[in-house]
Amino acid sequence: MLQTWKTLGHAEIGAAGGLSGVARRNNVPVTALRNYLRADGRLSQLGEDRLNPGRKAKITDAMLRTWKALGQAEIEAAGGLDGVARRDNVSVMALKNYLRADGSLTQIGEDRLNTVAKAKITDAMLRTWKTLGQAGVEAAGGLNGVARRDNVSAAALKHYLRADGSLSQIGEDRLNTVAKAKITDAMLRTWKTLGQAGVEAAGGLDGVARRDKVPAAALKNYLRADGSLTQLGENRLRKTGTRPT
After folding, report:
1. How many distinct helices (H) and strands (E) make up the chain?
2. φ, ψ of residue 161 in degrees (nearest 5)
3. What is the pLDDT of residues 219-233, one digit of tens each?
């Protein structure tokens, strides 16, 4: 699809009804398409990276130290984060996990350069974090502050704790000892009919997971927030002889 979209050009995208029209024609979510294709017919840096995966360099600690020294002005002079990624021949998606547009490293980047061993997140930590509330999280310096205080990876902590002090559904699932249901093909077919409105009415993907008593992390392997199945979900239904429409 990316190779085809790259040849469209601005005029043909306009004739198809814009990016939304191209998405309808190719039966893909327009939000996903916009990650890869611009309205002028050029692929985004993410799209270019995907078509050339073997040519990208691996991000090293030396790169992180260099990026940390750039500052916002130099990043802008390089053409923003996309420009830095092109210059250093790394995936822009991977770079953005480590570097912000203002020149500071993300907490993931800081954690990677920090040679002090990080602690493993325990159930006891989750129970403590659950009692913090938003005020407690803010007093600690936000989620990054909680991570620093408890010497855990900020990226890992954010899988479990939200900025308002509530545990994510993944965190709740981990503390909940009640056995979760196994995701079935029947569930996939039901979820596929929800649409974005149905998912939102249930309280988002976490709400659907709570309602159907399945782990949120497992559900997100199969269902997107816009109500469409992931490729894994589509493949699973095809394998069982149910071709999604």
Report:
1. 20, 0
2. -125, 135
3. 999 999 999 999 989
- Closest C-alpha among 72, 154, 63 to residue 107: 154
Rounded CA-CA distance 11/87 in Å is 30
Residues 145, 146, 149: CA angle, nearest 5 degrees: 85
**Dist. CA 112–CA 114, nearest whole Å:** 5
DSSP code for 26: H
pLDDT for 245 equals: 43
Residues 6+ apart with CB under 8 A from 36: 2, 5, 43, 44, 46, 47, 50
Task: Supply the angle between the helices 185-192 and 231-239 in degrees, to the nearest 10.
Answer: 130
CB 64 within 8 A of CB 112: yes
User: Which residues have CB under 8 Å from 130's CB, separation 6+?
Assistant: 165, 166, 167, 171, 175
Rounded Cα gap, residues 96 and 101, in angstroms: 9
Residues forming beta bridges with residue 167, ordered by sequence position: 161
Which residues does 28 contact at the CB level (< 8 Å), separation at least 6?
Answer: 1
| Cβ-proximal residues to 14 (8 Å cutoff; 6+ apart), any chain | none
Q: Which pTM value belongs to this model? A: 0.44
Contact 105, 99 (CB under 8 A): yes
Token pair recorded at residue 186: 């029947």
Cβ atoms 40, 10 nearer than 8 A? yes
